[in-house]
Amino acid sequence: MTARTLMRSSLVKLRTTDTVAAAAQVLLQHHLRHLPVVDEQGRYAGTFGIYSVLQLTLPTAVLMREGLDNVAFITETAHDLAQRLRERGQELVSQWLNRDPVAHPDTPAMQIVQMMLHSHTSIPVVHRDSHHLEGMISSSDVLHTLLEEHH
Amino acid sequence: MHGSGEVASAGSMWLAALLFVITYGVVMSEKVNRAIVSLLAAGLMIVLGILNQEAAIRGIDFNTIGLLIGMMVIVAVTRQSGIFQFLAIWAAKKVNAQPWGILVMISLVTAVTSAFLDNVTTVLLVVPVTLLITEELKVKPYPYLFAMIFASNIGGTATLIGDPPNIMIGSATGLTFNDFAYNLSPVIVIIMAATLIPIYFIWGRYLKAAPEDRQRVMQFNEYEAITDPMLLRHCLIVIGLVIAGFIFARFLGLEAATVAMTGAALLLLLANWRHGPEEQSKHVLEAFNEVEWITIFFFVGLFIVVHGVDSTGLLRLLADKMLALTGGNLTATSMVILWSSAILSAIIDNIPFVATMIPLIKAMAPTFGGPEGLMPLWWSLSLGACLGGNGTLIGASANLVVAGFAERAGQPIRFVQYTLMAFPIMLLSIVISMIYLQMRYL
Q1: Torsions phi, psi of A103, nearest 5?
Q2: Which of A64, A68, A80 sits opposite B408 (nearest CB)?
Q3: Whole-structure pTM over 0.90, yes or no?
Q4: Which domains, from first to last, does chain A contain?
């Protein structure tokens, strides 16, 4: 069993040129945690998710590598967080992509499960040569296929 | 004068010189990790017969190594308490979150902390708070980061433990914490104040923040930055004891490394005695992992390389050449050391430079009436090597750490842009040092 048999091909996708605000709306509309992002040529660029949106409510000094880990002293309100998100709403999703490992159509099922346990997210399936997005595999997809196999 | 195992011949002198120059060149190229280069060069010093192992080990200044490791462990534990963030927020609020006032206060906090603890750790922990404050105030962080680089290197110059060159000089000469504080602190205060003047005229007078943005900074609760009050108490007690140990080291007959290592062990005990053995091992390992082992092994290799070169008589020869150049005049020699160490430290790593200069200056003792006569030269070396690091972005490790943060915050500090502003201000600090040395010692 490989990624090809586990993946879903009909996908909701974002484009690298989409804004953060538009992407947040798509996530809410489809009740999804994260979405694959493709460029103008349909090549996979990364993923953008609900946590990508939430992190934009935080100051840069907290987000950056080796930034502040204790933020208990910052007494901001939900209004302040929302304001920061609004200010960043017009930034492009391409600036905030997650670049977790990807699978290829021939990646074995066991490796997919291992990647999933490691990253705790759905796994994008990308064509090995063209880098086009072929599909996504969620943990539910894997479980569903495995239970079907059992019966 | 060569002890057992130290061979001196024209051949070994040139071989050692060649090895030394290659080591310097490769370290400067930054193509190979500097610890690898210095350890390999140290190994070759032995393999090629310039030193035997016994002599090589004698060349390692274990007082410097112990002092560095001890202070690194103390800082590794202390940083977990949140004290650095507390100080930065407290300082910002003390000036009612006025942008220029914050720049001055953050610079002072950085300078004072860098005088007693590691510069790199200081900026590593204070820069994120500074970036947060500038973000809240909607002011550009560049002037703040620029001032912090200067403050960390200037503050570090003030004490025996503030900067590696001072640690090396102190260890090699027997100069104490008090000697450094007494001789360097006055000029450091003047240099810090003088550095803030051009920063004010270039950037400071244009820094403005809206009252509502300042109010957001004023609402920060600095006490929430303290993550572990008990740990903080322990850290403050141990740092206080360690500084007292340095101050009374001569009276107690203790070397600096003993004070720092004992302090580190005591802090580890206080921070861990409540935990079980497994938890203790985990915490101790975490603290040891924070020790900059690359720097430590770089020092070990470098001491052997410099000792190898020294044992061949090459540094004695260079010292004679330098004295011939300055006519054996103390003022001229002092100025040559001050200016050359400042300019070179802005471009190259000041650690190998100082390691080389120490035996070279020691060799000048007979000309200047013994070790006492060398005092102005040691202060020239310290001021030049430590302050010179401000001249360029690669002049000191702390500069690169700040630049890394600026890059990640989307406000990069460019090498040329920085140098154009920093080099003249660094030269100003050297001019002040020159006047100070002239007035006090020459």
Answers
A1: -105, 165
A2: A64
A3: no
A4: 3-56+91-150 (3.10.580.10)
